[in-house]
Amino acid sequence: MTVRINPSILAADFVDFANELTRIPTADLVHVDVMDNHFVPNLTFGLPMVERLQQVSELPLDVHLMLEDADRWAPGYAETGAYSVTFHAEAAADPVAVARRLREIGARAGIALKPGTAVDPYLDLLPEFDQVLVMTVEPGFGGQSFMDSVMPKLERLRAAREAAGLDVWLQVDGGISEKTIGIAAEAGADTFVAGSSVFGTDDPVAAIATLRAAAQAHTHAH
Ligand SMILES: O=C(CO)[C@H](O)[C@H](O)COP(=O)(O)O
Asked: Does 144 contact ligand 1 (Cβ within 6 A)?
């Protein structure tokens, strides 16, 4: 199975994103955290920044919306040309309608589950999504500790994906490091967001290679 490593620019230098992007040529996608200071108690940037990132990035953008009212705001992020747009389950009045709109615009549609959000209501909806983001920390801040208590959700998702014969990516985000990535891969994750453990190092290319190898060593052949 393919392993994807998506460095999160939350851990990069906010006044030097263009240069920071050149440090991760071996990444699969760039993870872009949009926070509105309402859905999460932190603020990053919005649509104008994502539009510029889309223009300068050679890697596809994996936009993670930590904002309220995804029904209203998510389509605009897809219109930037972002490869994928992921919104939180609680942030949309009609998650399926949002996902369908994102796909219509041409983006992959993702739904994100906070550590306390149950996975069960979404298992039957998997065909509506291209990606499920299982948060392995409370969203809002980088540099937190990986929560292995959410691994059963990945196992449920993996089983449901297999039963339905779907190609939904299972993404994890938060506290992903050389030490923790294998636990998430073992549970079923194939797409790994890593902030501090990539941009917080002197050699992001080496960090990505280390993470990829550690994930591959724990990835089941299915
Ligand atoms: O979505 C996020 C926080 O809400 C970040 O992408 C995530 O926490 C990455 O940071 P780190 O790898 O340093 O934990």
From this structure: yes
Q: Is 176 a pocket residue for ligand 1 (Cβ < 6 Å)? A: yes
Rounded to the nearest angstrom, the gap between the alpha carbon of residue 160 and the centroid of all alpha carbons in its chain is 19
Q: From ligand 1's centre to the CA of 9, what distance in Å? A: 9
Q: What is the pLDDT along the chain (222 residues), one digit of tens a residue?
A: 799 999 999 999 999 999 999 999 999 999 999 999 999 999 999 999 999 999 999 999 999 999 999 999 999 999 999 999 999 999 999 999 999 999 999 999 999 999 999 999 999 999 999 999 999 999 999 999 999 999 999 999 999 999 999 999 999 999 999 999 999 999 999 999 999 999 999 999 999 999 999 999 998 654
The tally of domains found in the chain comes to: 1
In a domain, 222, yes or no: no
Contact 176, 146 (CB under 8 A): yes
Task: CATH number of the domain at 81, please.
Answer: 3.20.20.70
- Report DSSP state, residue 43: B
The pTM for the full model equals: 0.97
CB-side neighbour CA atoms (13 Å) of 106? 7
User: Exactly one of 62, 130, 173, 190 is catalytic; which is it?
Assistant: 173
How many CB atoms lie under 10 A from the CB of residue 78?
22
Q: What end-to-end distance do the CA atoms of the chain give, in Å? A: 6
* Whether 33 is catalytic: yes
Give the ipTM. 0.96
Q: Which of 33, 62, 130, 190 is catalytic?
A: 33
Instruction: Give the closest residue (by CA) to ligand 1 atom 6.
Output: 8
